[in-house]
Design goal:
Layout (H helix, E strand, L loop, with lengths): L5 E6 L13 E6 L3 E5 L4 E3 L6 E5 L8 E5 L9 E8 L6 E5 L3 E2 L4 E3 L5 E6 L4 E7 L2
Parallel strand pairs: 3-5, 4-6, 5-7, 6-8, 9-12
Antiparallel strand pairs: 1-2, 7-11, 8-10, 11-12
């Protein structure tokens, strides 16, 4: 199984000290976890513990919008990536909504591959990027 791995490496050198060569880098690595979310009804709230969320429309007989409510973040800088993975019925949409957003209303996913990335600032959710919305 392949897994996304994100890393950052920084090199530090103290000014005014003698060095026998280039400084050794310090590296930090992050491997985000993903989950698939399917709203079994037209409205749901998930306890999202992962960073990447693949959304699946509910697929009921009626054409409708499934609304996923995003609660407040737990840590400043918390990031959530949402991607519509499966549209169960043509015309179905999945809406990610929250009561605390800045400069956006909601993320409405209508086509497979639509995506958005949100970040929590301690008070509100901000949209960092979107595709197809």
């Amino acid at each position: 199984m392949k897994k996304l791995l994100i890393g950052i490496c920084l090199s530090f050198m103290l000014v005014g000290t003698a060095s026998a060569g280039p400084p050794s880098p310090m590296c930090w690595w992050w491997a985000p976890d993903a989950e698939t979310i399917t709203c079994a009804s037209n409205a749901c709230t998930e306890d999202m513990k992962n960073d990447i969320h693949f959304l699946v429309s509910e697929g009921g007989a009626e054409v409708n919008a499934d609304t996923l409510t995003l609660n407040d973040g737990s840590d400043v800088g918390e990031i959530h990536h949402f991607v519509l993975k499966t549209e169960s019925d043509a015309g179905d949409t999945v809406v990610v909504d929250t009561a605390k957003q800045v400069q956006w209303t909601d993320c409405t996913f209508a086509e497979v591959g639509d995506s958005c990335t949100l970040i929590w600032d301690g008070t509100n959710w901000h949209m960092l990027s979107s595709f197809g919305l």
